[in-house]
Write a structure and sequence with these properties.
The complex is a heterodimer of chains A (211) and B (250).
Chain A: H1 2-27, E1 47-48, E2 51-61, E3 68-78, E4 83-93, H2 98-102, E5 115-134, E6 137-154, E7 157-171, E8 176-189, E9 196-210
Chain B: H1 2-5, E1 17-20, E2 24-28, E3 37-42, E4 46-53, E5 56-63, E6 67-74, H2 75-78, E7 81-83, H3 107-110, E8 114-123, E9 126-136, E10 141-151, E11 155-166, E12 174-189, E13 199-213, E14 218-230, E15 237-249
Antiparallel strand pairs in B: 1-4, 1-7, 2-3, 4-5, 5-6, 8-9, 8-15, 9-10, 10-11, 11-12, 12-13, 13-14, 14-15
The chains are: A mainly beta (211), B mainly beta (250).
């Protein structure tokens, strides 16, 4: 008998405890009040200088033709300190071939067909980033390698072109650099009948701006 | 461009100030780890961000004698600092430490969602060269614009397309993905071939591939795309392309 009395008391006790806990939960104010006050931060946007735009001039040796002047525009996206992606567009006018020079009255392709335009998208790797000392002052510099592909339009036709080269970039300050580049544009050309692999070496230099 | 990346504070003028929480912070002479460390800032000091070059930030640091040290700090080191702008007005929360890399105000600096890349490929016998730019919407979904040129023995032309890509396992280092989209193809016949296929056509595109995360900023990508070209004739054209590409997040 004492057993069921004990049980009854326990049940009653637990009911009271539950009720009281519900009451306290309802009455006691929240211990943690969320303070949702936004931090008022007004700061200027960070000037981002990952894009390099440059104008370059140089000499292009189109295979079988005399070398000619070339003007180039390049846009570089710098992913990080080691790598960049470069889009390059060059335009030149092919000179005469040796055959045309030896026999002056001949003309193998028309003047219009001598217009040379080439673009490529390449991967650049700053293999030796560092500093160059000039007159006791250190300037930032990169030596880089370039590999990519694109297309070349010349002689009234268009070809897929591989592009391989190297270059040197000297920062004159944070946003201005001087560059010197050597490139080889390799493509299979069937301008004179048979399919030839041609190597078209380009040497260029210019300034670029970072913004 | 950065207006898009950092809308949260694109309107204001005060430069971002960060307080150093780690015992030391290396300051380099240039934006690269090959440039020497010329100064070491200490915990409690405040740096002011001037500009950014990819993963490096140019900072100003006031030192004794009211001189200013100017140098470059890597993003990873910057992530362990804390924003201090307008802290005074919010004194009661000054015990809360929000690391810069976890701060929602700076999320685009530490988790870039825009990517740019280029690829090469094959379309039957033609060589392809292309570029693409995209934005990650979530970890799995991204939208992308693709443009390319193909140069073959018989036909040449350009393509431009917009796609949605889905990667079911974005956390995997080698992660598969699928993409669907639509675009336009402009074809010209080369040489003396017939003009039959010349002109511009709309296509629907589907594809799949694998992307390999080389680091947290680079991706190597191999993909296959199938194009259904919608022509005015009874027979729709089909094109299959293979691509290998490389992209970087910025």
């Amino acid at each position: 008998m004492a057993y069921w009395l004990q049980r009854l008391l326990l049940i009653a006790l637990s009911i009271i405890a539950t009720l009281s806990s519900i009451r306290t939960a309802a009455e006691v104010p929240e211990v943690i009040s969320p303070e949702i006050d936004r931090r008022e931060i007004k700061v200027a946007r960070i000037d981002n200088e990952n894009i390099e735009v440059g104008i370059y001039g140089g000499i292009l040796a189109i295979e079988d033709f005399d070398s000619s002047n070339i003007s180039i525009v390049r846009i570089d996206f710098h992913i990080n300190e080691h790598t960049f992606i470069e889009a390059s567009y060059g335009s030149a006018k092919g000179d005469t071939t040796t055959f045309e020079e030896l026999i002056p009255s001949t003309q193998l392709i028309s003047d219009e067909q001598r217009e040379y335009t080439s673009y490529d998208i390449s991967f650049g790797w700053n293999i030796f980033p560092g500093e160059t000392w000039l007159r006791n002052k250190a300037y930032k510099s990169d030596f880089y390698l370039i590999l990519g592909g694109g297309s070349t339009e010349f002689g009234g036709d268009k070809w897929f072109t591989w592009n391989v080269g190297a270059g040197y970039r000297l920062f004159l300050n944070d946003w201005l650099a001087w560059r010197i580049d050597v490139r080889d544009h390799i493509f299979n050309r069937d301008l004179f009948g048979e399919d030839d692999q041609t190597n078209n070496i380009e040497l260029s230099s210019g300034v670029s701006f970072f913004f | 461009m950065l207006m898009v990346l950092l809308p949260a504070y694109s309107y204001a003028s005060e430069k971002l100030q960060l307080s150093i929480l780690e015992p030391f912070l290396d300051i380099h002479t240039g934006p690269g780890k090959n440039y020497p460390v010329f100064y070491i800032a200490q915990r409690g000091e405040t740096i002011e961000i001037q500009k950014r070059r990819n993963e490096w930030f140019k900072v100003h640091l006031k030192v004794i004698g009211d001189r200013t040290k100017i140098g470059w700090v890597h993003r990873n080191a910057l992530g362990l600092t804390m924003i201090t702008n307008s802290r005074a007005s919010n004194e009661k929360n000054s015990d809360d430490i929000v690391l810069a890399k976890d701060d929602p105000l700076l999320s685009t600096l530490f988790n870039p969602d825009l990517y740019f890349g280029f690829n090469y490929g094959q379309m039957s016998s033609a060589d392809l060269v292309g570029i693409y730019i995209g934005k990650a919407i979530t970890d799995s979904f991204s939208v992308e614009v693709q443009a390319g040129e193909f140069l073959g023995a018989t036909a040449q032309g350009n393509t431009v397309a917009g796609v949605i890509a889905f990667a079911p396992f974005p956390q995997w280092r080698l992660s598969p993905f699928v993409q669907i989209g639509a675009g336009e193809i402009y074809t010209t016949a080369r040489g003396t071939n017939s003009q039959q296929n010349a002109g511009s056509n709309t296509f629907l595109q589907s594809g799949f591939g694998l992307q390999l995360r080389l680091s947290d900023r680079y991706q190597l990508r191999l993909d296959y795309r199938h194009h259904n070209i919608l022509t005015s004739t009874d027979n729709n054209g089909e094109l299959e392309t293979w691509h290998i590409g490389f992209s970087g997040y910025f």
